[in-house]
Design a protein that fits this description.
By secondary structure, the protein is mostly helical. It is built from eleven helices and no strands.
Length: 207
């Protein structure tokens, strides 16, 4: 009986020590995050990274996500990709990790991978207007107006009086030779933004 009491006491002590250690570790992580925000605010991204590296845990989604962002801001794109990818591996459905990973991928010109990431976002959230709009911009830049049209059309259908969607859908219609549709859209832009330079330029080209 005495032996069982000792085992029980030892187990309670062990649990207490584990809980205490976890609390200390969590407090260190909290302080590192807080300090990283301070450095980020002052524009010292490298020091912000260093703070989080002191408490780095490969299995932490939050630390990897933040390191992805901070390394991107510091211009360390390879490191940024690595941390965002680790965050995404930990939480495969995370859209914030995918949007984050897109940033350094775009910075180093990995456009096919950027497009693939946006399409993954849309496969899970078909009406994500940020992904639709940005894909539209990419295809517009590639002069693939058919693809751009598809994405801008969805943005405008979901947000019929949004400036960004309207102006890009107007220009896409213009580039495709759909001048009547483009004219209607440019005029809608002017309702949102009277005397808008881009809309007026488009209308002058149509006339």
């Amino acid at each position: 009986m005495e032996f069982l009491k000792k085992i029980k006491a030892f187990a309670i002590l062990a649990i207490f020590m584990v809980v205490s250690a976890n609390m200390v570790a969590q407090d260190a992580v909290y302080k590192a995050f807080k300090q990283s925000y301070t450095y980020e605010k002052s524009g010292d991204f490298k020091k912000a990274v260093e703070e989080l590296k002191k408490v780095y845990d490969e299995s932490s989604y939050e630390i990897n996500l933040r390191l992805g962002w901070l390394n991107y801001q510091a211009g360390l794109f390879t490191e940024s990709v690595a941390h965002y990818q680790k965050a995404l591996n930990l939480m495969p459905y995370s859209e914030e990790a995918k949007f984050g990973l897109i940033l350094p991928k775009a910075a180093i010109g990995k456009w096919d991978e950027v497009i693939a990431l946006y399409q993954k976002i849309l496969s899970n959230s078909p009406n994500n207007t940020v992904a639709c709009y940005r894909l539209g911009l990419i295809y517009y830049g590639k002069k693939d107006y058919d693809q751009a049209y598809k994405y801008f059309e969805k943005v405008v259908n979901l947000y019929p009086f949004d400036y960004d969607g309207l102006i890009m859908f107007a220009w896409t219609n213009f580039q495709m030779g759909k001048l009547r549709e483009a004219k209607v859209l440019f005029n809608k832009v002017l309702l949102f933004s009277p005397d808008d330079k881009s809309a007026n330029e488009g209308l002058k080209l149509i006339k």
